[in-house]
Amino acid sequence: GGISFLYGEWMLCAILLCLFDSATAQLAYSVAEEVDKGTVVGNLAKDLNINIQQLEQRGFRIVSGYAKKYFEANLRTGSLFVNDRIDREELCPNLPKCSLNVEGLLSHPMNIYRIEVIITDINDNAPSFLEQIHVFNISESSSAGERYPLPLAQDADTGSNSVKAYKISANEHFSVDVSSGADGTSAELVLEKALDREKQALIKLTLTAVDGGKPARSGTLQILVNMF
Questions:
Q1: Distance between CA 139 and CA 151 in Å, rounded?
Q2: From the centroid of its chain, how far is CA 190?
Q3: Is the same domain home to 176 and 209?
Q4: Where is the Cadherin domain (predicted)?
Q5: Does 15 fall in a domain?
Q6: pTM check: above 0.85
């Protein structure tokens, strides 16, 4: 009898975990990625209106369908805390929202509480370019105002921590025009002053991509302008 009851209880848990994504969480918390293990996410006992003594007496536990046990409950304090490293970019690459869904279980009688923990992004990645050097072959007869698309930097962080600006090293011939849209931030190299191959056949520039984090992180790319 006891074994079949427990089996039925866990089967119900498994079914509910499968349905969790389409259900509304009863509790919603948020925590930043990469916080230390042991960081308190919220007070389950208070938010679920459960007496702390009942948590231990009724065997409260956190279950999930993830390979790692990201969260655990402290039965003495009633708090939900971080139990494993949380890397937002690993869990939700390139997604604007990232959340982990778990369930809190009480036995005798059985109660199931759906819990959503939103993982907020920190600026732990710097912008980077896929190449170290990019070459432009530009005719010295090119007119001022001509534009050349620049390589875009990649940044694993999202939202305000993604790439927000591009800058070019000081020079007399080129500027950078940056535009932002739904697909992110892009940039073009703009010819400001006519080129003279006899004076300078090769121009070396440094393109810097800067993200919106505080403090900001950046990555660089060497630009070579070869005149013909």
A1: 20
A2: 32
A3: yes
A4: 23-129, 130-227
A5: no
A6: no
Domain limits at 66? 27-120
pLDDT digits (tens, 9 = 90+) for 106-141: 998 888 999 999 999 999 999 999 999 999 999 999
Burial of 153 (0-12, 13-18, 19+ CB in 10 A): buried
Same domain, yes or no, for 44 and 113?
yes
Q: CATH number, domain at 106? A: 2.60.40.60
Q: Are strands 147-149 and 71-74 parallel, antiparallel or unpaired?
A: unpaired
pLDDT (tens digit per residue) in 138-153? 999 999 999 999 999 9
Cα separation values, 159 from 30, 65, 95, 127, 189, Å: 16, 27, 9, 13, 25
Residues 52 and 94 in one domain: yes
Q: Which of 33-42, 56-65, 182-191 has the highest mean pLDDT?
A: 33-42
